[in-house]
């Protein structure tokens, strides 16, 4: 498991370099809209246009935003939002569709997004935070590694609770994968056989 941890330490700084310059990012204004906050906190991008924002959050490349994609953009598919009530989830999707779904077909097309944006319509803030929608690796890099570490970080420097929890999860996943690989190599997995079919010893 140590080799897995060491490999990840070597890889993470490269990802951090892809977001270089975030330490010099200008603070958001008091009245910044939700999309601006989202791009700054979740993607470390301070300047963007409506086309790039739409494409970045069109996860399936269909040139439309579905209810699922709206939910994901607001972080409602992330584990951190597991306690958000269903009513609130529906409020988010409905609220965004009401602002941008001009033809009422239940999705937001790229054209509708541009039309709304040009009218000054912006994504509402539902009080759910900036919207975490990356995987665990991405979220750890964006929200912890880049803030507290850099490309010169050594293994012994990764002592924050977030570091420990992150790499513990990697180790647990590696151990689970090893156990599954061992089971896959077995011709018969005894504990998968119902008790009534087992030979009494």
Describe this structure in words.
The structure is a single chain. The chain has 201 residues and is an all-alpha fold. The chain has helices at residues 2-17, 34-43, 50-56, 67-73, 86-100, 110-118, 136-148, 161-185, and strands at 64-65, 108-109. It has a two-stranded antiparallel ribbon. The longest helix has 25 residues, at 161-185. It starts with a helix and ends in a 16-residue tail after the last helix. Mean pLDDT is 75; it is low at 1-31.
List keywords for this structure.
extended, two-stranded antiparallel sheet, 2 strands
- Sheet bearing the most strands, described? 2 strands, antiparallel
Share of residues in helices: 40-55%
Cα-atom radius of gyration: 22 Å
From the spread of the alpha carbons, the general shape counts as extended
Fraction in beta strands: under 5%
Number of strands: 2
The strand order across the widest sheet is 1-2
> Mean of the pLDDT scores?
75
Q: Structural class, judged by helices and strands?
A: mainly alpha
Topology summary:
Layout: H1 2-17, H2 34-43, H3 50-56, E1 64-65, H4 67-73, H5 86-100, E2 108-109, H6 110-118, H7 136-148, H8 161-185
Helix pairs in contact: 1-7, 4-5
Quick description:
The chain has 201 residues and is mostly helical.
């Amino acid at each position: 498991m140590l080799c897995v941890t060491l490999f990840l330490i070597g890889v993470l700084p490269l990802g951090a370099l892809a977001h270089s310059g975030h330490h010099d990012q200008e603070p958001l204004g008091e009245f910044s809209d939700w999309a601006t906050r989202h791009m700054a906190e979740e993607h470390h991008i301070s300047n963007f246009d409506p086309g790039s924002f739409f494409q970045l959050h069109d996860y399936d490349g269909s040139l439309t935003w579905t209810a699922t994609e709206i939910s994901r953009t607001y972080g409602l598919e992330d584990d951190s939002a597991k306690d958000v009530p269903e009513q609130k989830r529906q409020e988010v999707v409905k609220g965004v569709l009401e602002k941008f779904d001009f033809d009422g077909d239940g999705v937001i097309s790229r054209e509708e997004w541009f039309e709304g944006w040009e009218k000054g319509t912006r994504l509402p803030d539902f009080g759910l935070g900036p919207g975490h929608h990356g995987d665990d690796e991405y979220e750890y890099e964006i929200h912890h590694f880049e803030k507290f570490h850099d490309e010169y970080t050594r293994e012994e420097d990764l002592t924050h609770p977030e570091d420990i929890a992150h790499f513990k999860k990697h180790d647990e996943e590696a151990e689970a994968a090893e156990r599954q690989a061992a089971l896959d190599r077995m011709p018969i997995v005894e504990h998968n056989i119902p008790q009534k079919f087992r030979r009494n010893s």
